[in-house]
Amino acid sequence: MVLRVCIYIYILVKDVMFVASKQVLLKRMSNSNLRLITFVSCFFMSFASSSSPPANTTHKCSAQQTVSLLLFKRSLFSTNDLSQQRKCQDLLGSDYYPVMNNWNTSIDCCNWNGVTCDDSTGDVIRLDLGCGMLRGTVHSNTSLFHLSRLQGLDLGFNDIKLEPRAFTNMLQNYSNLEDLWLTNINIGLALPTYTNFSSSLKQLDLSSTGLHGKLPVNLFDFLNVEELILSMNNNLTGPLPKVNTSTSNPLVSLDLSSTSLSGKIPESIGYLNSLMYLDLSDCGLTGSLPKSLVNLRNLSFLYLSSNMLSGTLPSSLFTLPSLKYIRLRNNMFIGNIPVELFSLQSIKGLSLGNNQLSGQTDVLGHRPISQTFRQLTNLTYIDLSSNHFRGDWDLDILLSSLTNLEELHLSLSGLSVSSNNAKHYVNPKFKLLSLSSCKLNVFPESLQAMKNLKTLDLSNNDIHGHIPEWIGEMGGNSLLILDLSNNSISGTIPNVFNNYAKLEGFIVNENQLEGEVPSSLSNCQKLRIIDLGKNHLNDTFPGWLGSLPDLQALVLDSNSFHGRIATFFTIEFPFPSLRVLVLSHNEFEGELPLEYLQSFNAMKNVVKNNTKPEYLLVGRVYYSIVIAMKGVEQDFPYLLVEYTIIDLSNNNFESEIPDIIGNLNSLKVLNLSHNSLTGQIPRALGKLSEIESLDLSWNQLTGEIPQSLADLTFLSSLNLSQNLLMGRIPQGNQFSTFQGDSFGGNPKLCGPPLPSKCEVPRQPQVEGDGDDVDQDGGLPWKVVMLGYGCGTLVGLVLGYLMLSTGRPRWFNAIADATSHMILRCKPREDSE
Length: 832
Description:
Shape: globular
CATH topology of the domain at 546-772: Leucine-rich repeat, LRR (right-handed beta-alpha superhelix)
Helix content: 10-25%
Largest sheet: 24 strands, mixed
Oligomer: single chain
């Protein structure tokens, strides 16, 4: 029996090799490899058959399936892709490990990682290889297709490319396949107008696979598909297909989020009456919500955020008996919140932020208690931010009424929030409180009980008093963001941040804080943003912050920082990730910080990894900043990650501008104005190829403006005024767009756009090495020395001839001819 099986295996493997001969790996497999696989398989079969198992023992994996799996393993490689690892951990909470490590013939294949077999037959029925550290290409003749009883296949979150034909074979030819998960692998297929799924398929996840083209018009006609996920395929277009009303549809979960759909949500969507989960967020959908949504009586999750939906919120929407989570954020809805919401006891999450909703919305007083949020005791999430509501909310009463609440977003909602600082019950799981611009005037005592707080935003209020010492206990070590900016907080910053290992943003600008920067911030190794600007802090430069590996923005402007910016020699590579440095309006002195400028590697050769703009986020909050550009403060409510800034203006820096700044070639904004800088403008600044704003005004800079600055094609704001610059203003490219105020206050500058004309022609600037040109822009020293040498030789020869011949007339004739040549070669005066 075993012999016959061995012969069968040999023939089978040979056939597999013949079919897969176009694959490079299999083409290189020699006959010895073939014999080895056959031998190993026969050995495995012999071992398995050495003792006959009892009738009730679980069947083992067959040799045929073992060979198929080993061939599949051989076609791939192991990898350690950090981006995949982050996705596995952040999105799935899953481990990222080499799943095929124990795939060998010493172990029954049913016991291999990721392999599930049918207990009664031994057939492989599931392969769960997601987050498996796999790399390679799955071809159309992959050995996986020999696993004919396969019911589930998960290849997601690997660095795998799936050939389009292999993908269609999976959809159509696996007669038993029920679950197919290909999340985040590369397919890159244009979907056909009509497509067919296997009748057995129930779950299909093709999110982030590079699909493009229009959605098939028969998308909802597959009778057995219960879960369909096509999200994060930005090039999927077209309208949402209509639902066939003549047949019942078993679809329970539909996710088309983060695609490029357009048009309205069709009324026929109401015929998906089995639907429990609907996610159409971050698309291009327009129009009002269809009335047919009221037919989705099983709907629990409705996510329609980040579209262009408009109109009022239909009251019927809040009568759906199973509705638990509704997210309509980032749309254009108007009107009031329907009162039917306050009777919907099933609701757990409500997100209506960033719309144009209005009306009175109170916790107490102006409405019956049955029409307030206090009634919705199952709520865990409320987002009413960035709307036009009216009303007064008592924070303590709200928190004690909604004991399941974990997140509260009321920033810019129009609501006024107060606190009596009474100690009420707070859900120990509470993790996010966003109350920016809510007219809050105290630091709420209830925060002390929030031991799991991750985000606290109390910015743009009227909070007085000191920061309490217990702020170091709030949130434990899971706190990510602390934003207390733009209040009236006084006193010193408590030095209590030893335990905030995960803190990413510490933002307390625009207050009345005094004293020094708390040294305990050096323990917050995840810090990405520190903004202490516009306070009354009195300290030297906190160079010890250079040890923070992820720090991207350090803002200390408008304080009383003073002294020289000294380097901490115990830190070998300070500020390795810094992209924004704002030290303006302080009392720093001495030379510009050359050592730090050399180490700002994150400002050199920045590469854009995404086609979509990527903004600087702390948690889920955008970091905003105000930067002075040409004397005018410009607000950046969303700061691009690649937008690199150095602002050292309005200090007492001296000496010359170092050439090393030219190496920061990804710099967008450079402001060194209102200092005491001397010397010439370095030609090396012409290497700042990405620069958009350059301000060197109000210094003591001398010499000519380098021609290299005229080659900066992205330069849109330039200020060189109030210096001691001289000579002709360079022309060309962006320089022709600047007005006279960019160059005013330099009496010896001439040429457009200034009214003063240049009397002397401009000598061409030699853009060579510094050794070839003198400091005043004169002739190269090699040319001068050559002239001296030639002149001496000619003089000696002429003198000898004159003395030996005694013919001064002949010499005079030569001199007259030479003078005539010199006069003919003299340049014409400039026409200006």
